[in-house]
Amino acid sequence: MANPKEPLLDEIQWKAPPLAMSMGGITTNTVLPYFYESPFFDATSNNATITTQATHNPALFYLIQTREAFEGRLRTMQGLEFVVAHDPSDNGTKVENSGVWVIRKQNRRKRPGQEDEIIPLNSYYVVGENIYMASSLGNILGARLLTMVSSLSKVIETAAALPSFTPALGHTYLPPTLKTGSSAVNMQMSQTSKESTPMPGTQESTATKPPSQLILDQDLQSTQLIQSSLNLSLRYGNEYMDDNPLVGEPGSFIITKSREVPPPASQQKPRPAPMTTRAPAPQVKTDIPEPKRKPSMGTEKSPSTPSTKEKKARRKSRPATSVTTPE
Question: Which residue, 38, 285, 297, 303, is most buried by CB atoms nearer than 10 A?
Answer without folding.
Answer: 38
